[in-house]
Amino acid sequence: MFRDLTPNVRLLILINVGMFLAKSFLPDEYLSLHYFGAKDFYPFQLVTYMFVHGSFFHLLGNMFGLYMFGSLLERIWGAQRFLFFYFFCGIGAGLLYVGIQHFVDFADIRRATELVLSNPSSFNLMDYAQHYAVIGSPQGVALNIEWVHANYDEYINRSILGGASGSIFGILMAFGYLFPNSEMFLFPLPIPIKAKYFVSFYGLYELYQGIQQYEGDNVAHFAHIGGMIFAVILLKVWGTKRNNFY
């Protein structure tokens, strides 16, 4: 089964599995993608984060998707074009993710930090601490400008992204785009569903989950959406004609 994989799909799986097995020797937080305003952000993380998986099942799900759909696309496009597509979708997913962080997730704390730094009165400092404190507790720390800076840095530095999901969702989108009428099975339903409906449903589900932001949900839904969006952009740029496929 592994011998049937195309060269780049096999290589990507080996690298991902190898990095997961070497987790104890690798600086995962250094390789994961941080918010671009965080002190631990580095541009190379837009690539390295794709090879950092937090759990075995996270890795398994992504590698299964790569195994199921990646080789077919590599045979169609060739090795170089497939690899470019993979990283284009992964980097695009990371960019959309940090963009959502900037304009949505961290917008409130960024404005609140600017406000309290412009007027660091005792009342403003205490109100800020009650809403955004992640260092110590409002009663147990000295609330001052230095604490605000340190707290803000810690707040935004805690959010990191890891995994190949953006690239995998891009591959899934490409499969649905090129083979819209191919039938798939959505476990555990025993009823076949066309790829175009499966991909559309999955995309809408990810969008819904990303907007809802349920407490305790640590899945990067907008990274998944980003992979799908950038997949469509690249397919449009390439001018791929779906009529050439089933």
TrEMBL record:
Keyword entries, A-Z: Hydrolase, Membrane, Protease, Transmembrane, Transmembrane helix
Lipoprotein found in the keyword field: no
Any one Gene Ontology BP term: proteolysis
Main location: membrane
Keyword Membrane: yes
Subcellular compartments: Membrane
EC number, UniProt record: 3.4.21.-
InterPro entries named among the record's database cross-references: Peptidase_S54_rhomboid_dom (IPR022764), Rhomboid-like_sf (IPR035952), Rhomboid_protease_S54 (IPR050925)
Transmembrane segments: 9-26, 46-70, 82-100, 160-179, 219-238
Single Gene Ontology MF annotation: peptidase activity
Membrane topology: Multi-pass membrane protein
Domain Peptidase S54 rhomboid: 44-101, 154-234
Pfam families xrefs: Rhomboid
Family of this protein: Belongs to the peptidase S54 family.
UniProt-recorded name of the protein: Rhomboid family intramembrane serine protease
Organism in which the protein naturally occurs: Aquirufa avitistagni
Lineage of producing organism: Bacteria, Pseudomonadati, Bacteroidota, Cytophagia, Cytophagales
